[in-house]
């Protein structure tokens, strides 16, 4: 029960909330309050400011306590020590959020807003009280981070809350900072949640708040949240990564540079290795990979020091000119160190400030207490530059938000449109850090790193992107797939016809792919519609003359030549074709065919890349160990997985005949749709798993063969007649292999007429003769009668004889009635009688081959 009955002070009194806290708070609350006040007192020169923060803490505690707010974890001083299942007073959380910002030296209003950030959402505090006691800046930040409630649909409420937060990029960036600090502390204390709740929370963090933190250059926070997420989602892999970091990447390993360069710890910054950098997540599993590299930043305080540092490394990198890789006060280079690679960045002070500027820089206070007058003046100049660079960085997402809002206004925004705008902006955030580009008229266009001229065109206008042929980038003609750089000035040169293609689709950012895919499918759909029925197409043209023509002929019962209609259709294209800029259906057909072929190529490329990524995990899952040889491509054709797919899957990819009737599933249509991004990832993974399953279950055999030239070609020449060798793996150093022999694993596909047992028996017989072919060269064998029916090809018989070293000189009919043929052989001089091959052995060899053709005949 709250102990407020003996309070004699009224809420209006400045000590009312303090006395309430002292009578009711737990040790956890006092601890975080004391830590916060000690931290801010160290850099706030005015004790009045410290008292303001104490007042905000005490008021927030009062309202959360009245609302009986609790959290499900107990958090230690560092914010990361949790005891699952125990409760703590809720005020510990906003106290730690404020402490995160105080540790960074943030101003009073930022700390106050952090302390109050959950009060509007979770307590009955009034807006008037916040405005009266803390002012409009604090109130606006608290209001922006408050979740929207009271809506029946939770997803709409979440979208609108996100929309409100995103709008804060423009008018109240402080609220973004507070929200990210809030999420950082929630991640630090996540282990009090259930496992399922943890998983959903960290995925939301990775999907939304980590990209947002990187957008405002809070990379340390983004790295920490990513590491915690990795520990929650992939604990085993995270433990392995931690072990590698502890064993291999300790900071003291690089202490030699501090001594050699005579620089301080502030000037040499060795970037900590992050757990998430070691974890590789693919569609079918999570693995740990050592990057074998490490970032090292060195900040030169003067031009003299900058030159001295470069000279130090230049002497050790004789084959690289460091001056050639220096630009705008930064030098990047790689430096081999033991079994790893150091990625060096040498900064002058201005370039380092520009790189380090973040949203946090706008709200940090300069602490000049430790400097003399001259040093303080220099520090204030540096501080002013840091804030200038921070505003410059923030201007990019702000400008992008304005562009996004422009589309919202054009579409008469409502709740749904506001949520859509938030989603569009968030997709932009996820694509990478923003860059500023310009139109020839000087209008700012904000894109993300890696954007191409196509992205620029589609940002200006969808129609411009569809017609774009080339671009002028800083006055130079460039292809549309050219990647843009910061501050490029771009002019798009359009044509009269659509140039959109699969190449366009490959070279635009994710946020544009859906639009481009839709337009490409329009081309294919309309082309397919035309091919289905000329009559149906012409009927839909909407041209009165053609409609009347059809009616006239149908009423009179006369027939209308479809060829004539086709000519009319080609010369009088429908409206859709006209909007694409084409003069006839023939031109559209040509474009559609190119789209089909390019989409097939891209679809195969996507599936092959997926196979390369999935193969190790599939093998590990089935056999409990990684394969000795990692395949980068299937050993069979991609279409081998098609028959294994369920009909519910295959019926999505049906073709239609000229009458519009469904003709059945088609593998090529699946490949085309894969290339155009119309097949979801889970179905692509399922398909590749079936390809792998097919090849994994193929019959195979291990043999020892002579280690000499020509053996594999002989084997292949025989196999082509009754099987397809799909993989030959040589094991040259296998234990137990006889001298002069080599171990070989062979996988093969059989024809429909053979089962696995028959095929292996034939392989065994043929390999036996290849291994012993030298002793089967028979000087006494001159001819052999074979009863081979007409129509059966002779090539496999000849190949088989040549494989065992017997040359066929002649083939002739012995008995045309019985279709008997005689093979005449070359005489091979050989003295050892034991090497003579018997006719019985040779007949048996022929019998194997004949059986592969499924006919019976005597020899």
Automatic annotation (TrEMBL):
This is Metal dependent phosphohydrolase. Signal peptide: none annotated. The keyword Hydrolase applies. SUPFAM superfamilies: HD-domain/PDEase-like (SSF109604), TGS-like (SSF81271). Its EC number is 3.1.7.2. It comes from Candidatus Gottesmanbacteria bacterium GW2011_GWA2_43_14. GO terms for molecular function: guanosine-3',5'-bis(diphosphate) 3'-diphosphatase activity. Residues 400-419 are annotated as: Disordered. Residues 436-493 form the TGS domain. InterPro entries: Beta-grasp_dom_sf (IPR012675), HD/PDEase_dom (IPR003607), TGS (IPR004095), TGS-like (IPR012676). Transmembrane segments: none annotated. Residues 400-412 have a biased composition (Basic and acidic residues). GO terms for cellular component: plasma membrane. The keyword Disulfide bond does not apply. Keywords: Hydrolase.
């Amino acid at each position: 029960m709250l102990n407020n009955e003996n309070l004699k002070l009224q809420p209006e009194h400045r000590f009312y909330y303090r006395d309430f806290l002292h009578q009711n708070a737990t040790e956890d609350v006092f601890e975080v309050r004391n830590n916060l006040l000690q931290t801010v007192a160290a850099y706030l020169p005015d004790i009045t400011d410290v008292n303001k923060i104490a007042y905000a803490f005490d008021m927030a505690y009062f309202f959360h306590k009245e609302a009986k707010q609790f959290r499900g974890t107990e958090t230690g001083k560092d914010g990361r020590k949790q005891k699952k299942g125990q409760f703590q007073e809720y005020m510990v959380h906003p106290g730690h959020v404020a402490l995160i910002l105080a540790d960074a030296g943030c101003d009073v209003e930022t700390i106050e807003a952090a302390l109050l950030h959950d009060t509007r959402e979770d307590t009955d505090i009034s807006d008037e009280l916040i405005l009266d006691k803390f002012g409009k800046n604090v109130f606006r930040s608290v209001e922006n981070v408050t979740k929207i409630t009271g809506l029946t649909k939770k997803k709409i409420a979440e979208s609108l809350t996100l929309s409100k937060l995103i709008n804060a990029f423009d008018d109240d960036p402080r609220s973004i900072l507070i929200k990210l600090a809030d999420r950082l502390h929630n991640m630090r204390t996540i282990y009090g949640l259930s496992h399922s709740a943890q998983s959903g929370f960290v995925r939301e963090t990775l999907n939304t708040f980590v990209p947002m933190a990187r957008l405002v250059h809070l990379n340390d926070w983004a790295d920490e949240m990513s590491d915690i997420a990795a520990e929650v989602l992939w604990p085993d892999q995270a433990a392995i990564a931690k072990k590698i970091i502890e064993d291999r990447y300790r900071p003291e390993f690089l202490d030699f540079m501090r001594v050699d360069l005579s620089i301080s710890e502030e000037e040499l910054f060795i970037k900590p290795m992050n757990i998430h950098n070691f974890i590789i997540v693919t569609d079918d599993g999570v693995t740990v990979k050592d990057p074998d590299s490490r970032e090292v930043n060195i900040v030169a305080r003067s031009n003299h020091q900058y030159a001295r540092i470069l000279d130090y490394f230049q002497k050790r990198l004789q084959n690289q000119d460091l001056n050639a890789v220096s630009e705008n006060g930064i030098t990047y280079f790689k430096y081999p160190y033991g079994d790893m690679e150091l990625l060096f960045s040498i900064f002058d002070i201005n370039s380092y400030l520009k790189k380090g500027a973040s949203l946090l820089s706008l709200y940090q206070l300069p602490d000049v207490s430790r400097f003399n007058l001259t040093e303080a003046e220099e520090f204030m100049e540096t501080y002013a530059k840091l804030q200038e660079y921070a505003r410059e960085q923030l201007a990019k997402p702000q400008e992008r938000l304005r562009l996004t809002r422009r589309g919202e206004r054009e579409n008469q925004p409502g709740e749904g449109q506001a949520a859509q705008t938030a989603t569009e902006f968030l997709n932009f955030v996820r694509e990478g850090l923003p860059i500023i580009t310009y139109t020839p008229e000087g209008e700012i266009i904000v894109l993300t790193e890696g954007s191409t001229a196509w992205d620029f065109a589609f940002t200006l206008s969808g129609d411009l992107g569809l017609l774009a042929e080339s671009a002028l980038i800083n006055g130079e003609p460039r292809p549309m797939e050219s990647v843009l750089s910061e501050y490029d000035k771009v002019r798009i040169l359009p044509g009269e016809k659509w140039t959109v293609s699969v190449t366009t689709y490959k070279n635009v950012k994710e946020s544009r792919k859906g639009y481009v895919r839709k337009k490409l499918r329009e081309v294919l759909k309309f082309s397919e519609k035309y091919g289905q029925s000329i009559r149906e197409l012409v009927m839909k043209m909407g041209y009165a003359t053609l409609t009347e023509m059809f009616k006239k002929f149908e009423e009179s019962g006369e027939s209308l030549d479809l060829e004539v209609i086709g000519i009319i259709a080609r010369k009088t294209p429908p409206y859709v074709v006209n909007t694409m800029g084409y003069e006839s259906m023939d031109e559209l057909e040509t474009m559609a065919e190119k789209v089909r072929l390019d989409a097939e190529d891209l679809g195969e490329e996507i599936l092959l890349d997926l196979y390369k990524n999935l193969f190790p995990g599939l093998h590990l899952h089935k056999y409990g160990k990684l394969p000795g040889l990692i395949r980068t491509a299937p050993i069979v054709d991609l279409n081998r997985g098609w028959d294994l797919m369920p009909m519910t899957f295959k019926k999505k990819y049906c073709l239609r005949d000229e009458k519009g009737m469904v003709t059945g599933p088609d593998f090529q249509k699946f490949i085309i749709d894969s290339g155009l991004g119309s097949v979801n990832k889970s179905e692509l993974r399922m398909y590749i798993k079936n390809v792998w399953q097919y090849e994994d279950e193929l019959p195979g055999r291990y043999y020892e063969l002579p280690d000499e030239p020509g053996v594999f070609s002989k084997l292949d020449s025989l196999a082509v007649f009754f099987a397809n060798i799909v993989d030959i793996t040589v094991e040259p150093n296998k234990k137990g292999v006889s001298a002069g022999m080599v171990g070989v694993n062979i996988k093969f596909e059989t024809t429909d007429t053979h089962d696995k047992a028959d095929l292996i028996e034939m392989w065994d017989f043929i390999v036996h003769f290849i291994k012993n072919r030298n002793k089967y060269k028979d000087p006494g064998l001159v001819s052999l009668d074979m009863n081979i029916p007409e129509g059966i090809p002779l090539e496999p018989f000849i190949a088989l004889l040549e494989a065992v070293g017997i040359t066929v000189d002649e083939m002739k009919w012995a008995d045309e009635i019985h279709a008997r043929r005689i093979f005449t052989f070359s005489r091979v001089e050989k003295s050892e009688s034991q090497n003579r091959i018997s006719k019985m052995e040779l007949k048996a060899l022929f019998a194997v081959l004949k059986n592969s053709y499924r006919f019976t005949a005597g020899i």
